[in-house]
Amino acid sequence: MSLRENLNVIVIDDDYNTVEVFTEFLELSGVKVVGKGYDGKDGVHLYKQLKPDIVFLDVMMPDFNGFYALENIKKINPNALVVMITADLSIETEIKLENMKATSIIYKPFDIQQILEIIDKLALKAVKS
Amino acid sequence: MKIIQETIPKTFKTYKYLLILLAVSAILLQTGFFIDEESAWWISSSVYFIVPGTLVVFSSLLTIKMAKSGQSIKLILLFTISVSMSFVAEQIWIGYELIGVDPFPSWADFFYLAAYPPLALFLFKLIKIPIRAIPKSNLLFIGLLASSFFIPTYWSTYESIGEESLFDLVLSIIYPIADIIIIVPLIIGILYWVDKRNNFLIYLLLGAFATLLADTFYIYLFQNDLYSVGNSVDILWIWGYMFFAFAIFPSNKFLDYVKKDYIPNISRGINMKIKTRLFIWSIIIIAAIISGGIFLSFSFSELYWSSTVERTELVNADSILIHAQAHLVPEDFLVGDFEKQEKTFSEFFRSIDTTEVLRIKVWSKEGIILFSDSKEIVGKDFSDNLRFQEAIEGSVQPVIKDPVLPENIAEKGYGQLMEVYVPITLEGEIVGVIEIYTSLDLLNNSIDELNQIILIGTLTVTLFVISIIVVSAYNLEKSIVNPIKKLRESTKEISRGNFDVNLEFESSDEINELAADINKMADDLSKNQNELLKAEKLRSIGELASRLGHDLRNPLSTIKTSSAIIRMKAAMAKDDKYTKNLASIDKAVDRMAYQIESVLDFIRTKPLQVTENSLQSIVQEAIDIIKVPENIRINVEPTDVKITCDSQKLGIVFTNLITNSIQAIGENSGEITIRIKENQGEITCEVIDSGPGIPKDEIGKVFEPLFTTKQTGTGLGLASCINVIQQHNGTITLSNNPTTFTIMLPMRQQKSPQFNEMIVQTLKE
């Protein structure tokens, strides 16, 4: 509980409802959401500005997608923690994300327990670095 | 092409003067028969001067006209040069004629030969298109045809020159070769353009023209005793008949024409049908046999005749001489007492065998007839006889005489005669000449018989060959042409999409094999097409499903997260009245997610993660996942095998099969038996249930994707089973009574190329 509260995260998804609900869930869980974005470009911009500990990033977005954001965030900080949240189950996407060194992949609809476990592990990592 | 059309008279009106010129020339030529040729050399001027001159003028004018209008004059220039050269040659020849000499070879020949190369070039350039269009084999055929002119032409030039010098010999070869080179494009052009228009009438006219020319020349040659077998005239005849054959034979165009609904087919080209080819080859073979027979008969009789004549001549001469030396004295040959000599020689000839000898003359040294069968010439002086003059010098002189000559009227009743002048040498000196007449009838008769035998032989062989050809043509029709037609029809059917062709032939030859291949091809095509259709169907379903899946997962995610938020808020407010409802929402979302996932799982085929497993344990794990209802007992037989496989995927297969069985059994109590067997590297696994079985007409469909009998089924369970089993190079089949799914799997998998499978939903350390 204690580690979670020190975390600053940003949430990027093209679906407004998803962003709002996910943000509320994170806030309730004690995680501080410092930024919200609706496409890949927003994501990169927010990361540059806010330097959050974790980025929650959707993959399929119009114009600038999750791959674009992931690539550019990793350019800014190769060790950036980026959790991909996607509804795309295809194996190609999985491989691509893995190659781009995504920290983790979570499939929608996700289990909140699963999210919390990941946040806790990443909180440890964030503290270490 | 244009050039040619412009120089060919189109109608009488347009080319009035030219046609009048031609007519006048032709009439002028005819008068040569009625007036003295020597004094009227101008009669032939039309042939040598006016007509060729007109041609030179015309072509020159056309060349100039084309050059002025800026057209390419290469082609027409070649033609103009050629006609000019031969015109010059003609004039030189007339010059020779006027001064009364006839040298060969001469300057005229130089110009004649010079006319050939531009003409050949002109013709070859003109037929560029047909040369490209005609198959190579046809070109060969045409070349052979053209070279048939070589020997007759060569023969006539060679005979007129003899072999006096190398230059003459070369010249006598150049003329025929030049002719052949010119004739090749002519044949190609005729075959191509006549056939292009596909007008058998042109063939008929050409045939008639050629045979008519041949007839005319034959009469001329025969009358002047110049005809010999294999002459150019004979070849002209062959050409004529060949044109007739072309006109009448191919595909009965003639009949169509008679029926008056004849429509020429322009695109046919000169691709001959099998039967046409056979026909042409038959004509060639029969012609070869007949000419072979004629050649045989001529060469045999020639040889036989000359050798026999020579022998007869020598034998007669020898025997006369020997007898003369034995019975006669030099005084008998002195001119004097004819009556005594009459007695002496009559006795002499009676003493020798004279069955073949018909008539005798005895000449004195001076050329006076001392004795003869015809009394009126006895005592007369024939010393100017050339044969006698030669004989008195000491050589035996044979002469062949035909009975038509007036001198031989006395020998009426006999055919050909041979006279032999035998010089008589007595006491080392030629004292006179004995001339004997021998009949050659016996010899000629036997030669005739020989020829008859050869002729009958040739005829028999020809008839035999013709009957073979007829029989084989019939067989060809039956065994090749008809089946090929059938094959063509069925291939057309196949291309129309009707794969239900079932070709059947009695014989087991290549055509039959082809038919079998076509049958198989149709089958395979049909199968492939079905599979393609299926794959296409699946692909479009897959695309739709994955998009739908993605679109549904986003709102599901929101619902699930929202329910979590509500639960968290409720927990904070210590309010538990929504707990049950929230659980329902979560369950519904999970179920929907699962449904979507199973569809997507079916669509994406991940590569196998092959490891060594116990099949028994895979089955057991599958059973553990499923909630087995109380009324059903699952009985797993204890046999176990080790197998290399993707345990997760194979697990899904068993889960699906067992779930399927449970649903089939339904509410009644029942039993599911799972039996594993191993036999020579192949594993058989049966899943047997006591359910009611599958209706017969649905047994083939159960493995098809999206086939389901249940309200809640995805229709993908069994379809994904067959996918997984096929990935493992195995088979899955279904049979009733009891309902049994039989899986056959190889024990070991060939390693498929692996790429790093992702570890999903776990964190990478």
Can you walk me through this structure?
- The complex is a heterodimer of chains A (about 130) and B (about 775).
- Chain A has helices at about 15-30, 40-50, 65-75, 90-100, 110-129; strands spanning about 10, 30-35, 55-60, 80-85, 105.
- A five-stranded parallel sheet of chain A has the order 2-1-3-4-5, with helices on both faces.
- The longest helix of chain A has 17 residues, at about 110-130.
- By secondary structure, chain A is of the alpha/beta class.
- The mean pLDDT of chain A is about 90.
- In chain A, strand 1 (about 10), helix 1 (about 15-30) and strand 2 form a beta-alpha-beta unit.
- Chain A is globular.
- In chain A, helix 2 (about 40-50) packs parallel to helix 3 (about 65-75).
- Chain A contains five helices and five strands, in the order βαβαβαβαβα.
- In chain A, about 45% of the residues lie in helices and about 20% in strands.
- Chain A has a single domain, classed as 3-Layer(aba) Sandwich (Rossmann fold), CATH 3.40.50.
- Chain B is α+β, with helices and mostly antiparallel strands.
- Among the domains of chain B are: about 1-115, no CATH class; about 300-445, Beta-Lactamase, CATH 3.30.450; about 605-745, Heat Shock Protein 90 (2-Layer Sandwich).
- Chain B contains 21 helices and twelve strands.
- Chain B has helices at about 1-5, 15-30, 45-70, 75-100, 105-125, 130-135, 135-145, 150-160, 165-195, 200-225, 230-250, 255-260, 275-325, 340-350, 385-390, 440-495, 510-570, 580-605, 615-625, 645-665, 715-725; strands spanning about 355-365, 370, 395-400, 415-425, 430-440, 610-615, 630-635, 640-645, 670-680, 680-690, 730-735, 740-745.
- In chain B, strands 2-1-5-4-3 form a five-stranded antiparallel sheet, sandwiched between helices. Chain B has a five-stranded mixed sheet with strand order 7-9-10-12-11.
- The interface between A and B is medium-sized, with 32 and 33 residues.
